[in-house]
Write a structure and sequence with these properties.
The complex is a heterodimer of chains A (about 280) and B (about 170). Chain A is mainly α and about 280 residues long. Chain A has helices at about 5-30, 45, 60-65, 70-85, 95-115, 120-135, 140-170, 180-185, 190-200, 200-220, 220-250, 250-275. Chain A has 2 domains: about 1-140, no CATH class; about 140-275, no CATH class. The radius of gyration of chain A is 21 Å and the shape is globular. Classes of the chains: A mainly alpha (about 280), B alpha+beta (about 170).
Chain lengths: ~280, ~170
């Protein structure tokens, strides 16, 4: 576990997890290249109507040029090239900051171009790559390195806590605990065999529903549990995201949130060392 | 204090502010959420309330029909929003984004149509994007105009029948 107190190791884990997730998302975007045409769902002509700036405004002209079809495909390809250069060992031997900057900028452009269809994994991935970029500007700067790790860990804990807090306010999660069955029962995010198995098994549904609320809402306690207590929360998180990927098809969440776990372990270990002192 | 120190303070300050703004936006602390979100063009302020407090427990269905040159209405055709779940989808799920995008636009459209006047929601991005999307779907015959409808159903093991949520007027193709 001492390894998790090594800042460079934490950033390396973070980098590989997030890059695997972003590379899958990027290839998925390219696979759907037709949807960015002007007569499709992600038509830039429609989305650009959000921009109330004057047509002669430089930002309007720039965004119009970069984000219109087919130029936008170039943005996605640029992101993929930067990711590949970072992932494949020994290909890029210079500072990683320029490549991470390219990933940050292209991610921001993709976010701007997608007023619908983005999810929490895209947001978490953007947060992680921005912090990775800030770290790689000057890896010797331990203050920024530590601040970045704490920032990622606290964002991740905020995400679990927020999800748990709002679930605790929902009737289908608490007083009538059948949310897990109802979600799995949908075609959009569920699975017919699993819904069929859970149907009329109220005890199991209640357990799954309440345990999701309880662990998400108490997830920030991972910071004070130390080792090996943290394994309960992080192990649950890993199982939760694996199940979401398998049953709900939320593949990118697994990588985006696993990328934050190294930071959570680092903060937990640092706090444990502090309590012992 | 040298330039490096100033840079460090700025970065740490920005991260602190970003974390604070993220927390404010989750819980609408001091009712500042709208203020921050209005400026968030790049989705930097996350929404972490996944499936809460009210999870989506229904499936949306997007249907459309066309009028031909003689003003005869065709039959309703469904464009499937949900895709079949596969094991490989845990790693590679390219249909997820389009499905989520359609789901988001449909949900926003329904909310807008319940709250706003037709003249207001018909000029919204979601409405125009949906009309644009429906118009782009491949058709067998020459059609003059198209209409779409959004329906809601209650999953694999439904407790009640599907219901209609919205029906657009005809739009020229």
């Amino acid at each position: 576990m001492e390894l998790f107190l090594n800042i460079e190791f934490i950033y390396t884990c973070m980098k590989y997890f997030v890059l695997v997730g972003i590379s899958i998302s990027t290839i998925e975007l390219l696979y759907n290249w037709k949807s960015f045409k002007d007569d499709r769902l992600y038509s830039w002509k429609v989305i650009a109507t959000r921009d109330y700036r004057n047509e002669n405004h430089i930002l309007h002209k720039f965004s119009n040029f970069v984000l219109k079809y087919p130029n936008f495909l170039g943005v996605i390809i640029l992101r993929l090239i930067a990711i590949l250069l970072l992932i494949i060992p020994s290909v890029w031997t210079y500072s990683e900051a320029p490549l991470l900057l390219a990933i940050v900028l292209t991610s921001l452009l993709i976010n701007y171009r997608s007023p619908f269809g983005q999810d929490g994994s895209d947001q978490m991935s953007t947060i992680v790559v921005i912090v990775l970029f800030l770290f790689h500007i000057n890896p010797e700067n331990t203050i920024i390195a530590q601040a970045g790790i704490w920032f990622i860990a606290l964002q991740s804990l905020l995400s679990y806590f927020t999800a748990g807090y709002f679930k605790a306010k929902g009737k289908k999660w608490t007083t009538h605990p059948n949310a897990v069955f109802l979600i799995f029962n949908t075609s959009t995010y569920g699975s017919k065999p699993i819904a069929g198995y859970l149907q009329n098994k109220q005890e199991i549904i209640t357990f799954l529903t309440w345990s999701t609320v309880a662990i998400e809402a108490t997830f920030p306690l991972v910071l004070i549990t130390g080792y090996p207590g943290m394994i309960i929360f992080l192990g649950w998180g890993l199982g939760f995201h694996l199940m979401n990927a398998l049953v709900m098809g939320l593949n990118s969440f697994l990588w985006a949130f696993l990328a934050t776990y190294g930071a959570i372990i680092y903060c937990c270990m640092q706090l444990s060392a502090y309590w012992i002192m | 204090m040298n330039l490096s120190d100033i840079f460090t303070y700025i970065i740490v300050g920005c991260l602190g502010f970003w974390l604070l703004a993220s927390a404010i936006c989750q819980f609408n602390i001091l009712r500042l959420e709208k203020f921050f979100r209005r400026m968030d063009y790049f989705s930097l302020l996350p929404r972490w309330s996944f499936f809460a407090p009210n999870p989506g427990v229904t499936d949306y269905h997007l249907l459309y029909r066309d009028k031909d040159q003689e003003d005869e209405c065709g039959r309703w055709t469904e464009y499937a929003i949900a895709s079949k779940r596969t094991l490989i989808g845990a790693v590679w799920n390219p249909k997820k984004r389009a499905k989520k995008a359609l789901s988001d636009t449909v949900q926003t459209m329904i909310r807008s149509s319940n709250k706003l006047e037709p003249s207001q929601y018909k000029t919204s991005i979601c409405y125009i994007a949906l009309v644009n999307f429906i118009a782009s779907l491949p058709r067998q015959s020459e059609s003059k105009s198209t209409q779409f409808m959004i329906m809601e159903s209650y999953g694999h093991y439904p407790t009640k029948g599907p219901k209609m949520l919205f029906r657009s007027e005809f739009h020229k193709l």
